[in-house]
Amino acid sequence: QVYLTESGGGSVQTGGSLRLSCVASGTGYGNLCMAWFRQAPGKEREGIAGIDSVGKITYTDFVKGRFTISKDNAKNTLYLQMNNLKPEDTATYYCAARPFPQTTLDRDRYNYWGQGTQVTVSS
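Below the sequence we write its predicted structure tokens.
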């Protein structure tokens, strides 16, 4: 079992930055593929960025150049640095993990989820 706890959300103005963190507890963090998703009201949960057990990274197109995913295996922590935030980035952001090596942004392939952290970007 893997437990995920996100933090770092908040309210910022357009162009601002936030760094989200996700601490994993349980077992086998280093072997997990992990990812960030987000869900805005009335919309489906969508993948943002994923990182596999050896550090291969995948981004969805709409965050390339603005968001950066990284992880610190020594701290069992996943990060999402978000720069140049826009109002359309407003959503609840979720950390997810799957006990398989390949990265994916398909939400149906993730076994473990955090509770989410709210990000609000005002214009």
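Residues 92 and 118 are 4 Å apart (CA to CA).
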